[in-house]
Every structure is written in C-alpha cells, then in structure tokens.
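User: Here's a chain of 456 residues. Predict its fold as tokens.
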Amino acid sequence: MEHDVVDTLISPEGQLEILSKAEVNKLLDTSQGGLYNVFRKCALAVLNCGSTIDDGKELLERYQSFDISIVQRERGIKLDIKGAPAIAFVDGKMIKGIHEHLFAVLRDIVFVSNEVTDNPKFDLGKTEGITDAVFHILRNAGVLKPMLNPNLVVCWGGHSINREEYNYSKKVGYEMGLRDLDICTGCGPGAMKGPMKGATIGHAKQRLHRGRYLGITEPGIIAAESPNPIVNELVIMPDIEKRLEAFVRTGHGIVVFPGGAGTAEEILYILGILLHPDNADIPFPLVFTGPETAREYFVQINQFIHDTLGPEAQSRYKIIIDDPELVAREMQAGIKAVREFRKSRSDAYYYNWGLKIDTEFQRPFPPTHENMRNLSLHKNQPVHLLAAHLRRAFSGVVAGNVKEEGIRAIEKYGHFEIHGDKEIMGPMDALLASFVAQHRMKLAGKPYTPCYRVIQ
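Assistant: Prediction complete.
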C-alpha cells in the first residue's frame, strides 16, 4: 500500500559539527559494518512522528523506498531525503522540531561510532569505561548543564496507555512544570509524551522560557517510539543499557507511570541499582503513580517486586494513586535532598558519578533465543543481580514485541522460552498475562500475539 511521501533537501540550522569526508563515507557505507542502515532507520522513525505504528519491522516495510543521503558541500552538508512520511511536513515544509531531531540523529550516530565505539580510549568491557562513554555521548549532545540546580525528573511508562492514564500523566507533568521541574523521558508517545505536554503548560504559566524536555532513546526502540514533537533535546544512545544508565545518571528523581514490559524492565533496572549495597545511602526519589483506574496495575507490580526482590526493594519507592500535586511535591522534596547530598560531597549536579552500577546492568544483552533460555532466574544470588537478570527477561519481551530484529527472530525461531525457579516464574507469568489482558503490549486496536513462553 502506498503512503503519502515527500522528497526534500535540508540543511542543518545552527552549528552541527562539520563532517569530514571520512565520516560522510562511513555514513554512506551500506555494507554490514557501515552506519547507513542505523542512520536510515533512526531518521525514518523521527520523520514518522505522530503516527500510530509501534512496530519497527512494519515501519521499514511501509516506507521501503525511503532513502536519506548526505550531500557534502564545501560549506558543510545537506540531507537529501526521498520518500519521507508526509506527516513530518506542513504545507510542504518540514516541521522545525523534526528537522532538529534529524540532525540530532546524525550527530549521535556519527559521534558514537567515531568517538566511542571505535575509540580504544573507552574500555567498554569495564564499568568505568561504559560510564565514561555515556558521559561523553551526553556531553557531546549538549545535555549536561553544569550551572543548573538539580531539577530533572525522569518519567517512565508505557507507549501504549489508555486516554485516562495519558491525561493523568499530563496532569503530573503540569504540576511538576509549575514547580520549575524539567522533564526527561524515553521521548515517545503515551506516558513519555504526557508529562512533557503538561510541563509545557506549567512552565508557560510560570513564564519559564528555558523548559527542558529531554528525550533519550536508542536505535532498537526508536521506530516503536518515534520522538514526540515536544522533545527539545534528543539523544540517541547506542543500546538499551546505555540508555538506561543515561536516565539514572542525568535524572535527579524518577516517576513511573503505568506501562508494559518496557516499564517493568525500567523498574527492575533502577531497583537493582538502588539495592546494590554501595548505593544504600544515596538519595534517589522514586514514585510509582497513576489514576484510580491504574490502582490494580500497581498492586500487581508491587506484589511482583515483593515476590521476587523482597521488602527491601519495596522500601525504595512510594506508590501515589490519583494525586498529581502530591507526586510533584514528593519529587520537589526528594530532589532537594539530592541537591543537599551532592553539595555536601562536592558531587556534580548534572551527572551522578557516585551511583554504583554493576557490570551486569551495563553489558549489552542481545535477546537471542539462546540468551533468553539461559537467563539466571533463581533466588540463590544477591538480590541486585536477580534484578539484573529479570530486567533482561523483560528486555527480551520488549524486543520480541516491537523491535525489528526481535520480531524477525520470533518469526524465524518461534517463542522465546523463559526458565527459572517456580517462585519467580509464577509471579512473572502472572504479571505478563496482566499486561496482555490490559492491552499494554501493543498500541490499542492491534491484536497481540505473545512472543514468549514462561516455563515453570
């Protein structure tokens, strides 16, 4: 089926670092090791902003003729775009926010490849090397602001949420915006867009003109979660693990809205880090919240955490139902404690170097059938490591649901099989089943076929 498309030629606005001929060639290299395919996929996702596709494979198949190339001129570069989704244009002209996002994609794909992945200076086999790489990618993107007091709230939650949950996330964002709190999300629709939308109104009422709406994504998920147009700072991290680390090192507190497997993955990630003995005394406000209709959702999440990670994990977060103002006040107070703690230790406000993140949370986890089968899901290990393995299990489910490579692997080899102790598998199966029943795995109106089988 043909879809409305537009051809265009665009120049960067502002200062995008001028690319060398070697960098341009690297982008144009369509071979296996080249950057072109990643760049094309991310660029198409950015141009698809506002559409209802949350399937990376479907997006690429729908716009097979889409092509983007870099034209090098003596004065710099232009992007030659063929077959772009018409949704990105108004009266034939590209929407300015989408224009900015395209060049953010170009900046990060080139920088990460040249300065991080292919740079022996970063030992990506070691914890310190990975943390350093995350810092450099964020600094290059201009999102680390040294002169600001802590005020960045990370908002997590599903891309597939109902209208009531979306409106609630907007109200929470509004209350936080009124209190001069900025918003960072995974940059997509649903619970990632709602808080940003609310905060823009809160900031406007307070005449705060420098509101930050930071979106952090990665190439595997960007097609399912096209950056929403409110995002005014976009960063593409190389993989989900570095994306998660970027969230917790730049954010000063986290609010979790209802979601599906990806939200469960995020919850397990932050709890696993906070449960590390070295982080016991580090203040980190963490609030789970939703409207009254989401109460049962958080009862299930809370029960799952109790059954798998235990009461200590439960002590690291608060659940607030149907009270946006209280959520905002809780975040404001929690971030004040973060500021005092960092100030007392002369720590940076803009990057949380002090948080200990175990290698198990940093090492990229390719969700292959073999890796999913071999996950270590048993109680006989430190609780923060169990959280790391559980996170990987949910990460695999996300890949099978919406990521192009995961969808193709499921089509080829069948379901992912998840094994483990019965006292872990039972609660996990129940939680995933509740996500399916509540339509949290795919956007509304799309049938969901499970990509996994839990084996008890």
